[in-house]
Amino acid sequence: MAVRLTLVSGERTGMVSLWESGAASLLFIDTGTGTEHTWQDDLVLTSEHDLPRILVPLVKLVEAAADGR
Q1: Which of 7, 41, 58, 63 is most buried per CB count within 10 Å?
Q2: Which of these, 55, 42, 50, lies nearest to 14 by C-alpha position?
Q3: Cβ of 49: how many Cβ atoms within 10 Å?
Q4: What is the four-CA torsion angle of 65, 12, 26, 1, rounded to 10 degrees?
Q5: How many Å apart are CA 21 and CA 44, to the nearest integer?
Q6: Residue 36: CA count within 13 A, CB half-sphere
Q7: What is the mean pLDDT of the chain?
Q8: Domain total of the chain
């Protein structure tokens, strides 16, 4: 079973998928430029304190659309 969190701003979408095992993957899509990037570099969460470490880069990419970057 996976839990997914989706962040959307303008043409940018970020998605975090978390599995019961602690494995996580991140997906970033910018439909304006056709950019799609998936992070699956053995991301494993050991506690809820690991979430900011993986979410911050994704949130920054999505927020950049709101800032016009």
Answers
A1: 58
A2: 55
A3: 8
A4: 130
A5: 8
A6: 2
A7: 83
A8: 1
